[in-house]
Write a structure and sequence with these properties.
The structure is a homodimer. By secondary structure, chain A is of the alpha+beta class. The first copy, chain A, has nine helices and eight strands. A four-stranded antiparallel beta sheet of chain A has the order 1-8-3-6. A four-stranded antiparallel beta sheet of chain A has the order 2-7-4-5. In chain A, α8 crosses α9. At the A-B interface, α5 of A face α5 of B. Chain A binds a DNA duplex through α9. Chains A, B: It comes from Flavobacterium tiangeerense.
DNA sequence: CTAGGACATTGAACTAGGACAAGAAAAACA
DNA sequence: TGTTTTTCTTGTCCTAGTTCAATGTCCTAG
């Protein structure tokens, strides 16, 4: 049960088995059915989720009421607001919702503090985790600015081959920043070749 | 000399004066003229810079040879590769260049490790710093996807009023992900109203 | 003080992608 | 099983933004 999350957290920092025991003892396991809202805009996000199984999306709603998907999180990925809502006590601007039946491990700020107090080296692991998401987000920003819709879609399917099967197309369109109709046109064009 | 960086680092975590002394003793001061390349694509980024004075840009070069500016860093901001090049030992994909004569404090991985060893609570401060950049980058991704060029430009000038004076327009265009010509057209249209 | 380069502006022609509408297909559900 | 809701496709028209080229402006080095 803990193997997935343990191999994730030890990817860049190694921990002793007693440290991992502390870590595991502080995790809360949760099962959540699909189409469940985990976080609504305006709430304060007080959790960090590790996805054991299933799929989650995190999204904003823009000025015209359109959803913009920022992140899909599938097996072995972390999701949370990751803006500064916890530290500055500001309400979140994002929504987080399950797309499939999910299994999670959940962290909240208190258990995280407890973890850092009992095993300070986790502070480092979480900093590196953060750094990874920053790198990913930055790469995505670059792709979004510099590539055409077709290129972005190809890139997406290459990078997340399973996801493009599991998730409705209009979600993918929203992630890529294009309309669902145009994505459909891209797909038919690609299929013809 | 140290007031800027000290007030930056104590913004979310408070430190004793002895901790700050350790911190300051590990900083390297540097002056660099404008148009200096600090990092080239393909190199491994082994520094983190705090800008005391001046302006720096960080950018990718896309598949067609066009520059895409990811970040401007001015007074009191941090810049580094922030992708994972240090940890995975991969060459960087970004360029970092000064746009004005600059004054910096520089950190490299070794001094940072030394800092964490001598004053472990800095690990936390750097994690929060990381988290802030992630939040900023994510907000920017959202804006990039969901807003028109005009809106993005207005947002930019509102958020960075000094920067839009200090920096050449085609850099701003590159940051916003639009062509320099179109930015010029937006500006003349806005001036007429 | 001047020549060369970088930067900005403007216009004309073009295109990637959006908005809307309507139908087809596929899931979900009872 | 049929029915309802959600998702996907396709076509037509439209616009935001690009590309290319020409001209103008302003630094800055010599």
């Amino acid at each position: 049960m803990y193997t997935q999350i343990n191999s994730n957290i030890t990817r860049y920092v190694s921990f002793s088995s007693s440290e991992l025991e502390i870590f595991n003892s502080l995790l809360t396991y949760k099962e959540v059915p699909k189409k469940t809202m985990l976080l609504q805009e305006g709430e304060i996000c007080n959790f960090e989720i590790f996805v054991i199984k299933g799929c989650v999306r995190k999204y904003y709603i823009d000025a015209n009421g359109f959803e913009v998907i920022l992140q899909f999180a599938i097996e072995n990925a972390w999701v949370s607001d990751s803006s500064f809502s916890i530290y500055e006590n500001k309400p979140s601007r994002v929504f987080i919702e399950t797309l499939e039946d999910c299994e999670f491990f959940v962290f909240n700020p208190e258990t995280k503090e407890e973890l850092f107090a009992k095993a300070p080296r986790f502070e480092r692991a979480f900093r590196i985790l953060m750094q990874r998401s920053l790198a990913v987000t930055q790469e995505r920003l670059f792709q979004t600015i510099s590539r055409s819709a077709t290129e972005k879609y190809q890139e997406f399917t290459a990078q997340y081959p399973t996801l493009s099967q599991r998730v409705a197309q209009h979600y993918i369109a929203s992630y890529l920043g294009i309309s669902a109709e145009f994505l459909s046109k891209i797909r038919t064009k690609m299929a013809k070749k």
